[in-house]
Amino acid sequence: MNPKSEKLAWFSAMAVIVVILDQWSKTVVRTSPELHRLTLIDGWLAFNYTTNPGMAMGISFAPTFVISIIAIMATIGIVWYTISVMDQAPKGFVICMGLVIGGALGNIADRLYMAVIKGYGSVLEGAVVDFIHFTWIWPAWVPWVGGSPSFPYIFNVADVAISTAIIILLVFSKWLLPADPPKEAAPSEVPVQQTEAITTDTPETETASPDSEKPETTTQAASETDLTPLSGDEAKPTKPA
Fold first, then answer.
1. Are 123 and 115 in contact (CB under 8 A)?
2. Any idea where the domains of the chain sit in the sequence?
3. Neighbour count for residue 189 (Cβ, 10 Å)
4. What's the angle, vertex CA 106, arms to CA 104 and CA 112, rounded to 5?
5. 103 with 162: CB under 8 angstroms?
6. How far apart are CA 199 and CA 179, in angstroms?
7. For the chain, which terminus, N or C, has the lower number of CB atoms within 10 Å?
8. How far is CA 78 from CA 70, 75, 122, 163, in A?
9. Are the C-beta atoms of 156 and 128 separated by less than 8 Å?
10. Digit-coded pLDDT (tens) for 137-195
11. Exposure string for 136-150, b = 16+ CB within 10 A, e = fewer
């Protein structure tokens, strides 16, 4: 198995595991009235079953079907990004993104079919099932927050997977975030280099040209000297001694 296939397998496996655990836990709590209000650790942790038509932590800025569409589009974008950087991404980053996608798909599944099960409305108008609740309260002597719940929001397994992955990526971003892909040379650089080479060679050719013409000039001068007519005694034949 090549590295990219291995990373893709880890990404898919983590997403599937989170979806299975999330949907199984929600179904068990939703169909078991005795789990709707159950103290697990007194003063710390409890099950409090509720449904959330908005986003995480009860945030709601639009109708439920609009929030559902935004969640689906965001999930598709995250999957596309993860696959596009998988070659240079560490395995830890891929595992964390698998947790994020698994959590997103788990909550989207609620929005798709909880509307039909609970009669909220049409598809995409379902509410997300939440049931995990930290019940620890700040001591009264703590300024500003004394006596207030430490974490007033109720969440689910999908939210735990998403939050865990984000915290890990933030804390270990130096080692887990994918590296930038190597930059390729711009196509315009090659012609520029060739032009510089041609320009550099041209002066050398021009410099050598005058030197190559010197022998021709000397020969021409010699020829003109030979054709000069002799006069006076120079023209008389020399008698042998």
1. yes
2. 3-30+37-176
3. 9
4. 100
5. yes
6. 40
7. C
8. 12, 5, 26, 15
9. yes
10. 999 999 999 889 988 899 999 999 999 999 999 999 999 988 766 666 555 555 555 54
11. ebeeeeeeeeeeeee
As a whole number of angstroms, the distance between CA 94 and CA 122 comes to 34
- Report the distance separating Cα 133 and Cα 38, nearest Å: 10
Question: What's the confidence (pLDDT) of residue 208?
Answer: 47
Distance CA 238, CA 157 (A): 128
3-state secondary structure the chain: CCHHHHHHHHHHHHHHHHHHHHHHHHHHHHCCHHHCEEEEECCCEEEEEEEECCCHHHCCCCCHHHHHHHHHHHHHHHHHHHHHCCCCCCHHHHHHHHHHHHHHHHHHHHHHHHHHHHCCCCCCCCCEEEEEEECCECCCCCCCCCCCECCCCEECHHHHHHHHHHHHHHHCHHHHCCCCCCCCCCCCHHHHHHHHHHHHHHHHHHHHHHHHHHHHHHHHHHHHHHCCCCCHHHHCCCCCC
* pLDDT value for 187: 56
Residue ranges in the chain whose pLDDT is less than 70? 56-61, 118-121, 180-241
The model's pTM is: 0.71
